[in-house]
Design goal:
Layout lengths: L10 H12 L2 H5 L1 H7 L3 H29 L3 H8 L5 H19 L3 H17 L2 H34 L10 H9 L8 H7 L6 H24 L4 H7 L13 H15 L1
Helix pairs in contact: 1-11, 1-13, 4-5, 4-13, 5-8, 6-7, 8-9
């Protein structure tokens, strides 16, 4: 008897889940800092180019692979290529060769990682790619839960502190207090409310984040009304393309790939 698979209740639920997977804490926590340090709006334009050139094709490949195989990441690669192939041998060998170049430049940790991945791809085939995607999800979750607590704690502190009158030297102390404090997400009540709805389990989990996103948008709207908001907009002006040079693509490309990896 074939195993019954869950299906998305609506296209909107799938779109929200995909957006929630791709838009992670890195976009909120790290991306604004990188943008401000590397050209403001010019850096965002380069980032959008990377999204179209790298992220969009990878996402379409993921969707096509999932719809064709109707399996999890490991099973999908098993169905497409059950055994190691010539292409896998070539790519695995290339990764191993790249590992030796990393060793020559003293990048021992990256070299060891590339060597292990190259050997696995060479011997096992594409299945290892699906397994790495699953493993990456667990690794990301290990620090996302912590950083998520920091983010919520910092938002609570920012809503209650008089930041305009606080000396700059006290800012690290406030951040340290947030980092060392446990923060729990009060989502149990919303989860109970969603139990009776006719939604798949994945869509129910996605609905838990919608309220938080709306609250975040309301908080951002209020922040734009503050007296210092124009200074923030100055950082987003697309006028420093020289600082958003081609070398910055090395910073953007891994982030684009990571966003797609989380979504997969």
């Amino acid at each position: 008897m074939a195993e019954k698979r869950e299906q998305w209740g609506s296209g909107l639920g799938f779109i929200l889940a995909a957006a929630g997977s791709a838009v992670g804490l890195g976009n909120i926590w790290k991306f604004p800092y990188i943008t401000g340090e590397n050209g403001g709006g010019a850096f965002v334009i380069v980032y959008l180019i990377c999204i179209v050139a790298i992220g969009l094709p990878v996402m379409l490949c993921e969707l096509a692979l999932g719809r064709h195989t109707q399996r999890n990441p490991v099973g999908a690669f098993q169905a497409v290529c059950p055994k190691s192939s010539t292409v896998a041998h070539l790519i695995g060998g290339g990764i191993v060769l790249n590992a030796f170049f990393l060793f020559c430049f003293g990048r021992w940790q990256a070299g060891l990682l590339a060597l292990a991945v190259g050997i696995l791809v060479f011997r096992i085939g594409w299945v290892v790619v699906g397994a790495m995607g699953v493993l990456a999800g667990f690794v990301i979750l290990s620090f996302y839960s912590v950083v998520g607590g920091w983010t919520m704690g910092y938002m609570l502190e920012a809503a209650t502190l008089q930041s305009e009158t606080m000396p700059d030297k006290q800012t690290p102390q406030v951040i340290a207090k947030v980092v060392l404090t446990e923060v729990q997400v009060p989502s149990e009540g919303l989860a109970e409310e969603l139990k009776g709805q006719d939604l798949s389990e994945a869509e129910q989990k996605e609905q838990l984040t919608i309220a938080g996103r709306r609250a975040a948008l309301a908080y951002l709207a209020d922040a734009l009304s503050l007296s210092g908001a124009p200074k923030g907009w100055e950082k987003m002006e697309a006028k420093e393309f020289e600082t958003a040079a081609v070398t910055k693509i090395m910073t953007l490309a891994p982030k684009v790939v990571l966003d797609d990896a989380v979504a997969l």
